[in-house]
Amino acid sequence: MIRYLKLFGYVLTISFLGSLPVGTLNINVAGLVINKRIPDAFAFALGAILVEMIVVRIALATVKKLKALKHLYKFFNGITCLILFLFAGMILYAALRMQKLETTLPLTSQHPFLSGLILSVLNPLHLPFWIGWTAILQSKGIFWHSRSSYNIFVFGIGVGTTAAFLIYGTLGNILIEFLRQKQTMLNWVIGLSLLVTAFVQFYKGFIRQNTNDKKAYS
């Protein structure tokens, strides 16, 4: 029992901290709360979390096969960068036109659960992130391959990501009146944050990776 609790605690903490940096998923949760669409925020978060849990559960059972697909990570990383640049551009454009975040992201507002599913599916970072942490936890004897450990692992991910989304939603709810009055400023902050995140992801996925590949072959 202690071994399972230790695994759950580690995975929950990793999932929570990994979900805190600004990204398309948590920003959408906060945006829906700010626009008083709390049920939609829950629906969006549920869709996003379900996809992550399903993807990781499949990955844990087929981790050896997934390691052979590492050459596809660059392709998926490109999709992530494209999505981040797209969202950043849309939100910065809204800031220039002094529009609300809700009108900037109509798909999220109209179909929150479906949007959560789609955006989480298009997020390729789930696999490399959790495959890396799986290897680390296994090397330390915290994770082991069994059906029960897989289920605890996935459950920890769900709880950790939910906690991070709740923080974004709670902060948005607490500051809701202030943020609604400062919608343009909020759009600038979110847009610039996503833009920086996109450039960082592009650097890590392409420039630094190419440099590491050249060193490996030299």
Which key phrases capture this entry?
218 residues; mainly alpha; 12 helices; globular
Could you give the topology of this structure?
Layout: H1 2-19, H2 24-34, H3 38-61, H4 63-67, H5 73-97, H6 101-104, H7 106-110, H8 112-121, H9 126-139, H10 147-174, H11 176-181, H12 183-217
Helix pairs in contact: 1-10, 2-3, 2-10, 3-8, 3-9, 3-10, 5-12
Overview of the molecule:
This protein has 218 residues and is mainly alpha-helical. The protein has one domain (2-217). Helix content is 85%, strand content 0%. The chain is built from twelve helices and no strands. The chain has helices spanning 2-19, 24-34, 38-61, 63-67, 73-97, 101-104, 106-110, 112-121, 126-139, 147-174, 176-181, 183-217. Helix 2 (24-34) runs antiparallel to helix 3 and helix 3 (38-61) packs across helix 9. The protein is globular and about 55 Å long. The model has no long low-confidence stretch (mean pLDDT 75).
